[in-house]
From TrEMBL:
The keyword ATP-binding does not apply. Its EC number is 1.14.-.-. It comes from Dyadobacter sediminis. InterPro entries: Rhodanese-like_dom, Rhodanese-like_dom_sf, Rhodanese_C, TrhO, TRHO_N. This is tRNA uridine(34) hydroxylase. One of its GO terms (molecular function) is oxidoreductase activity, acting on paired donors, with incorporation or reduction of molecular oxygen. It holds the Pfam family Rhodanese. Catalyzes oxygen-dependent 5-hydroxyuridine (ho5U) modification at position 34 in tRNAs. Signal peptide: none annotated. Residues 122-215 form the Rhodanese domain. One of its GO terms (biological process) is tRNA modification. Gene3D superfamilies: 3.30.70.100, Rhodanese-like domain.
Length: 327
């Protein structure tokens, strides 16, 4: 057993006062020493947090204690250290950027549990469709899956024509944790696809519960691990080093902050190039110091990590003052 946990989850449920809930949510994370990224939107929650097993358990209980989120499903992984360096709890318009104008609470693809997904992998009438970004499926994907050359889910409408000829097949969408597929599968239904499914809990849950069979490569994740192993049954490497071309499933962000591209780069090339993806990026004045990981904490111009805590303390102070005045 490892000393820390990483929790991945999402849940679609209406949140009326997102600002207040953001402050409350953030305060809980601060008090329980949790780091990570959490998005709160009128349509629900999306988060990845990391901390000790005890603090992560408290967090899961906190989420489920709210009637709106009592059925949330958590993917829990063990890790050697906390998988984040900061805490961000942000309010956004959507819990996953899509602009697809669909509501998964009204209509979405049928959920396939990991065990069900495993049983249909070799069905000739089944087509697996990867709903992740190009840099994600470059380092890992299911055998035979259809992939799109898109950088984010907003580009899906530009690629649907690539699978138009498969409308008579069983379409099974998948992504990292399941959240993108809720909207992607709903969009496919809107576009006239009749038999649409989604892997419930995504690649991560399939790996945890079913051993990840037939997932080639590694799974890209959005924390400082960058990629994680999924397949313990028949693993293989499908990506190549961006610089030397040798087999490599080690992803980095280019050390040039203005580039920041996500590419596989082997240890040797990364050291030689100081974490840069090209000689031009290596010589660029915006190059960051390479620490051997290829992971860099991004700066944010949005919600400050202490804003929620300050708001809660300010409100508490007002309440105490009002109580003394009334007395």
């Amino acid at each position: 057993m490892k000393p820390f946990r990483v929790i991945l989850y999402y849940y679609y449920a209406p949140i009326a006062d997102t600002e207040t809930y953001r402050d409350e949510h953030h305060l809980f994370c601060v008090e329980h020493h949790l780091l990570g990224r959490i998005i709160i939107a009128p349509e629900g929650l999306n988060g990845t947090v990391s901390g000790t097993p005890e603090d992560c358990e408290s967090y899961m209980n906190y989420i489920r204690s709210d009637e709106r989120f009592r059925n949330v499903q958590f993917k829990v992984e063990e890790h050697d250290k906390i998988a984040f360096q900061k805490l961000h709890v942000r309010v956004k318009d959507e819990i996953v950027n899509s602009d697809l104008n669909v509501n998964p609470l009204v209509r979405t693809g049928k959920h396939l549990e990991p065990s069900e997904f495993k049983q249909i992998l070799n069905d000739p009438d089944v087509v697996l469709v990867d709903m992740r970004s190009d840099y994600e499926h470059e380092v890992g994907k299911f055998k035979g899956a259809v992939t799109f050359n898109m950088h984010n889910l907003r580009e899906l409408p530009d690629h649907v024509h690539e699978i138009e000829h498969l409308k008579d097949k069983k379409i099974v969408t998948y992504c990292t944790g399941g959240i993108k597929c809720e909207k992607a599968s709903a969009y496919l239904l809107e576009q006239g696809f009749k038999d649409v499914y989604q892997l419930h809990g995504g690649i991560i849950r399939y790996g945890l519960e079913e051993g990840g069979e037939n997932f080639d490569g590694k799974c890209y994740v959005f924390d400082n691990r960058i990629t994680v192993d999924v397949n313990s049954v028949n693993p293989t490497v499908i990506s190549k080093c961006y610089i030397c071309g040798e087999p490599c499933d080690r992803m980095i962000n280019c050390s040039n902050a203005e580039c920041n591209t996500h590419v596989p780069v082997c240890h040797s090339c990364a050291e030689q190039m100081e974490g840069a993806c090209s000689p031009e990026c290596k010589a660029h004045p915006g190059k960051r110091a390479y620490d051997g990981t290829g992971y860099y904490v991004s700066n944010s111009n949005h919600y400050h990590p202490l804003q929620g805590l300050k708001s809660q303390k300010k409100n508490l102070k007002k309440m105490k003052l009002a109580a003394r005045t009334e007395a």
